[in-house]
Amino acid sequence: MTTATNLSAREFVSNSEADTFDLGVRLGENLSGGEVILLDGALGAGKTVLVKGLAQALGIDREEVTSPSFTLVNPHQGRLLLYHIDLYRLDEGAASAHAVDLDEILTDERAVVIIEWAERLGRYPLPPNVWRISISGDGDEPRQISFTC
Predict the structure, then answer these.
(1) How confident is the model at residue 9, as a pLDDT?
(2) Could you say which residues of the chain have pLDDT below 50?
């Protein structure tokens, strides 16, 4: 993986699932609670692999982390509570936020909230501590992973 020794870089190249997982661990080590992570990428880009790495850094068994495509919200307890949300199957707009009780979830300032397909929220207001992570690439090609916070 092409990275700096710390997370000052905002662009990464992942050549494997292990690279994506390891980046998730490194990002997760910087979480202190209250972060909202908006995760963007095509189906199969590695979003759930990245979340598994984030979860491991929070002391959550990565085998417990699965895509919440059908359940919509998967809570996981580690050193912080992690809410893994998937809006893929929902309509766009505030209705998506209401369908997963996002208002209630965001009241927990010690939790970390990861939202896949967050663009479906439209202009839904989010708290200030938002990280945006984008993964591009699919198949066997390297993934380009960028983040802003």
Answers:
(1) 61
(2) 1-5
For residue 126, the 8-state DSSP code is -
The three-state DSSP-derived secondary structure of 42-78 is CCCCCHHHHHHHHHHHCCCCHHHCCCCCCCCEEEEEC
3-state helix, strand, coil split of the chain in percent (to 5) is 25, 25, 45
How many residues are given for the chain?
A: 149
The reported pLDDT for the residue numbered 93 is 66
Say if strands 143-148 and 11-14 run parallel, antiparallel, or are unpaired: antiparallel
Q: What is the pLDDT, as a whole number, of residue 130?
A: 92
| Strand ordering across the sheet containing 130-136 | 11-14, 143-148, 130-136, 36-41, 112-116, 81-86, 73-77
Query: For 87, which DSSP code?
Result: -
